[in-house]
Amino acid sequence: MLGARCDNRQRWHLAGCSTLTTSDVRTQSETFMKAAYFSAPGPPEVIQYGELPRPIAGPSEVLVRTAAVAVNPIDTYIRNGANYWPLPSPYIIGCDLAGEVIEVGGSVRQFRVGDRVWCSNQGLMGRSGTFAEFCCVDEQWLYPLPTNVDYEVGAAIALVGITAHLGLFARANLQAGETILVRGGSGGVGSVVIQMAKRLGARVVTTAGSSDKARACQELGADHVVLYREQDEVQAVREFAPQGVNVLWETARIPNFDRSVEMLAERGRMILMAGRDARPEFPVGPFYVKQCQLHGFVMFKATAKEQRKCAEEINQWMADGSLKPRISHRMKLAEAAQAHRMQEQSTVHLSGEVAGKIVLVP
Asked: Which of 3, 13, 299, 304 lies at a 20 to 30 A Cα distance from 352?
């Protein structure tokens, strides 16, 4: 008999494989679902794609039929054994999802069966993930998806959109007319930061590793792109912003703080969202003499209220077409292990293969 997991995040059916009949609450096809999961951390090959018990919505939960999911770098860190928190076993991978509501718990008030929705912040803090045909999500982490927005767009914008919004507005307090430098503007987060900053009215300079990625950044709205393999980044940024940049969004896994602080303006703010294992030197003197600020954050530690505020504006911008994710690859859910391998090669080994988001569909 398959074990049952019953907590406030995910509730599994008890399913005796030899005793199911048509008189059961659900038929066998309704009792199980396809999912991408692992039982022990390791390389991408530990990911399995097969049947698991289908979850049942608890009182505050919504059962969503998955239409699209997206890969994030943190997914690969967790799969590789990062000890952030205890994981369910088996652990369904993934943070982001878009789909259709098919069941609601008794205390749910914001959603109805048939609603189109999206979410992030799953697969984190001990919650089960989204890479499955069905997913239970507490309504506090779920948001309506505008009717004119594709499911793939909703899934691809989820974590990166909330991350960009929190960093730009709640942390850096970017203002219209200010200048922001986005390191790696063609990436999942960087491409969204560019769009949000331009929508606000900021001047945007970004970096790219190739002419193709530079063109993509310009199409997103970047005012100036520095080809960091061919140009001196500090000099090129200074030519665009002689007084320095007001905000620097750092995406490098090993930041070079000497160069970053050199590019900051007086009272400049730096956002850190990567480099969990990095221990670089830090130029304390130049930093405090300029009266700069350093903000490190991870989106999944933001409260549900904070994330919902982000989601409400993200929905407005997706609906009016001013915010679009950059989708690099589209794959099937059964190819989750390959998708993780590609993401890891791009993020950790800097292959450059993934420029944007990897989206998967069941």
From this structure: 299
